[in-house]
């Protein structure tokens, strides 16, 4: 699971340097069945060598562009299943044609530093790289690219190099895709460059991937001509919306709502929203050993909006999940595989085709004592319909603006839910005429323990007894303050003891007749971390069985812009700014900052303080704050990616990020004393056992750990929030040599912290009975101001009998 999941942090649809494969002899049309990068590499490398030999002044990017833009049109090629027509992701621009590439008149250059700047994890945009393709994986209504073409000055044509040429740009794209180029025609001199802006409008396109070509045709030249047609492949995923996937709701109540922000769709004046009713997940605990997966068959009827499965494990360090089907259970055709580090896996298939599916749970790593218990949740969600009562939604803006984010409030109303249950539904967005579907929002609802609980200090009472009652309002799990209103009207047979009613917070009232009322605002929970290490907790791990050496995955450090071997001091590098936000102390962060002084910071746009190189004891109100300190002391990074020294960044799936520091040395050090350490973080918090949101790991600790090189004489290992009022530390500005070794792993588990409110009072039992007991139900009715919430009841039932003795027996 590990080698397949961890990836360098640079990607862009359609930017495969092995895009053009094949016109190197009689390869036929079957290469797609047999080849991959292992066969493409020598073909393309050899072709590039031939081109470079004839054009020694061309850069690698120019050679690449010439190979792609002059590739021969591929013959009919199919995908691996032998029937489905291939697309540019399979065949690229076509077959490599070196004899054409050496005659290219237009080439495209792109310096290597631009690739680093385009890294989406560092806030870059890969679609704007000057590459011979037009790709976009989330084109809502429209998208654009800028490309620069350079006229060669050493063209291999009869009569010598060309002097100028004129080009016209046209497009071969599917119906519904409208593309333009500005300028659409141009004349360019040898050695000159021409910038072109390409735009695609996909409002009328079918949702999904749209493939085509942008064609540059030579329509005139004053000198000898060469290749008269050069092509850029087009791959655009037309999308009507950028929606939450999923919309997660964690609730202690059966009714209420949550607001989801930042949705994007095409403009709509007649938005229609339908919902699929919530479905309770099937839940079972299965025993799974390594190499002996658990499987389960599920039948999906026509019209279903979702097939969803999730697993969690208390015992397996790393388990994986797969859904196979429908009907054909070939792993290569699996519609969903979730095989990330750890054991919190999720597969959700929107609008699944009807048929039989197989859910498979694999124990990838396994504990010391197998089989391991793994909890499986699964459900099939029905069609979206109007008037659904258990799940609904409404847009908080009307009409829906074009290319502007907007908010959606999702309502839920499912009486009778129990703590620990998971429920699944879906919200479908479209227009009122039904002519266009904008997208489907999966809704995952996790029911937690009730937020209002009523208890009594005894169950069996007799006339004259004094009973102590307590109502507890749990801390607020939502992101916004909630106002609670509680009314407790004592039934006949119970009489309030005057002056006994108290509340730890809020506004308490006692009305005539003994009606107890309370109102109060519960602010959102604060967050903190519980810390553990692998020395005492076997579950404390990176999820990769120890230290993650990114070099072993071929992931080199990021070029930080300094000269090779140059040390970098007092710098912060922002990374992972795209994708899911990174949760730190319960707050979402767009990206995270990494410093040369051994700490990461959750608000890198904020000043790191007057002296970030000075180690602090946590918490400390002096900036920097909001820090995760792996090895905080005065250090510097050596920028030497070729020798795997510096800062390496990687992701493992959509939810895991890794930042590894290699050969970090003391400030003004000579490189003889170095440390390797890393931070592994989950973007989204998890309540599953053994799922740690933050992990520090250490390796090759060749420098002192006693703090002797620190300006304060100590090292700090721990975390601190932005307000500097919460922190957890393993080492706090002290000697770390007894706490950290080459194999040490430090794990931090996010916990909600906050004060509950308690309302207490006493009541005397006035109910007279005979030998048969009488049941008295004492109800507290409670509701919040959360839109969509409905009144609920927290109840205590007393058994009253005059025949109850002190020993509890009748």
Structural features, described:
- With 810 residues, the chain is mostly beta strands.
- Strands 1, 35, 36, 43, 44, 45, 46, 47 and 50 form a nine-stranded antiparallel sheet that branches. Strands 28-53-52-30-34-33 form a six-stranded mixed sheet, with no helix packed on it.
- The protein is globular and about 110 Å long.
- The two termini are 62 Å apart.
Please give a quick description of this structure.
The chain is mainly beta and 810 residues long. The protein contains seven helices and 53 strands.
Main beta sheet strand tally, sense and closure: 9 strands, antiparallel
Structural class assignment: mainly beta
What percentage of residues falls in helices of 4 or more residues?
Answer: under 10%
How much strand content do the residues show?
A: 35-45%
End-to-end CA span: 62 Å
Spans of at least 5 consecutive residues with low confidence: 1-35, 804-810
Radius of gyration, Cα only, in angstroms? Answer: 32 Å
What is the tally of helical segments? 7
Strands, count: 53
* Overall outline: globular
In round numbers, the mean pLDDT is: 86
Give a topology summary:
Elements: H1 2-5, E1 6-8, H2 31-34, H3 37-54, H4 60-69, H5 88-91, H6 98-101, E2 106-107, H7 112-117, E3 134-140, E4 142-151, E5 164-172, E6 178-182, E7 185-189, E8 193-201, E9 208-220, E10 229-239, E11 241-242, E12 247-251, E13 255-265, E14 271-280, E15 282-288, E16 294-300, E17 306-313, E18 319-324, E19 336-338, E20 345-350, E21 355-363, E22 372-381, E23 391-395, E24 406-413, E25 422-431, E26 437-447, E27 452-456, E28 460-461, E29 466-473, E30 482-489, E31 494-496, E32 502-503, E33 507-511, E34 515-522, E35 526-533, E36 566-568, E37 572-575, E38 582-584, E39 587-589, E40 592-595, E41 599-601, E42 627-632, E43 635-639, E44 646-652, E45 656-666, E46 675-682, E47 694-699, E48 715-720, E49 727-734, E50 745-753, E51 757-765, E52 774-784, E53 792-800
Parallel strand pairs: 3-10, 12-26, 28-53
Antiparallel strand pairs: 1-44, 2-4, 4-8, 5-7, 5-9, 6-8, 9-10, 11-13, 13-24, 14-25, 15-22, 16-21, 17-20, 17-22, 18-19, 18-21, 23-24, 25-26, 27-29, 29-51, 30-34, 30-52, 31-51, 32-51, 33-34, 35-50, 36-43, 37-40, 38-39, 40-41, 41-42, 42-48, 43-45, 44-45, 45-46, 46-47, 47-50, 48-49, 52-53
Helix pairs in contact: 3-4
